[in-house]
Write a structure and sequence with these properties.
This protein is an alpha/beta fold and about 375 residues long. It contains 14 helices and 15 strands. It is about 35% helix and about 20% strand. Helix 2 crosses helix 4, helix 4 packs across helix 7 and helix 8 crosses helix 9. The structure holds flavin mononucleotide (FMN). The site of flavin mononucleotide (FMN) has 20 residues, from strand 4 and helix 11.
Length: about 375
Amino acid sequence: MKQLFDTYLFRGTDKSANNRIALAPMTNKQSYDDGTLGEDEYRWLTRRAREGFGIVFTCAVHVQPDGKGWEGELGNYDDIHIPGLTRLASGIHQYGSLAIMQLFHGGARSPENLIHTQPWSASEHIFTIKNHNIPVRAATEKDITKVIQSFTKAAIRAYHAGFDGVELHGAHGYLLHQFLSTATNHRTDQWGGSVQNRARLITEILQSIRLHLPPYFLVGVRLSPEDKYNYKGIDIDDSLRVAEILKDNGADFIDISTWGSTNPPQKYPESTKPIITWFREYLGNEIPLFVAGEIWTHQDAVNALIAGADFVALGKAAIGIPDWPTLAKTKTPHITKPPYSTAQLSNADVGNVFIEYMRRWDNFVSDGDI
Ligand SMILES: Cc1cc2nc3c(=O)[nH]c(=O)nc-3n(C[C@H](O)[C@H](O)[C@H](O)COP(=O)(O)O)c2cc1C
């Protein structure tokens, strides 16, 4: 029976995580306009390593300027980024955590005012956000070849900077997800149609990275298991198949982003099995699985492991409670839930820009004393 504080050795590598607790990838907007590492981004991530998170994922890091998703986002598309990334990897390693960079391209969801060009995706469509209708152009073969190269070059930079691996962001409606989804991918060529074809962009990136880097460099993929919000077009059955294709193509791990780690799939609400159990049963035991989604207490994390995860990835809890691993170790029942005061967040090395960003989450930040 696996335990939260068991170590985990990734098969065929020398990469060992000290425990099963990961900091989920989280956009925090604390880097510079040119994508170089900001001081607050460094502090936020290295603090979680210091507090005992066995694996620290970075935020979504754009691999091309036209894939940027937010102001202040960490970048990895140029050698100017390498010094900051090197400092970050060694800052995380000094506390014994593994450092994994999440690589992404925003596709249709990259705002025009940030990328200064028309956003592109799998197919031409109108992307609607906050009552704005944004025309998105279809990817050309040249775009696809270039983006595969950009993901590969970013992985190579991450490797040279000292990161233990990368995670391809195939979730939440960004470019890789847009290719997976029938809502945004209407292509009739080799990049569209069957699940295999829709997953081709991710598998080509995976294979290209494998070709250029040693096998001990971890390459995993994050997936959204099913339709949600504005990233519809893929259901649990498609996602299980995508995960299997990725496993067959040598992915080192699959990270399932749920919005409630105990929920059954929406497609099968009568099921008593949480989504992660569906993936475990479908994929077998060889591939490590991460799960995120409303994990707050030690017991929530244990339940996720029992349901089939090898790792829990903590999002909101890790923002407000940097010492979550220590509290979990002592099985402290008192985990404070939001709202968190600005003072508490500052003490947790959440910088002002990130605190402001967190106001977008209902009732997360409080200006008064808590
Ligand atoms: C502020 C914030 C930023 C996030 N940014 C990312 C991101 O860059 N990449 C990603 O895959 N998920 C991102 N997520 C989703 C989290 O990784 C996680 O899956 C989600 O918050 C659910 O976990 P939780 O309930 O523990 O917060 C973000 C979530 C939050 C709260």
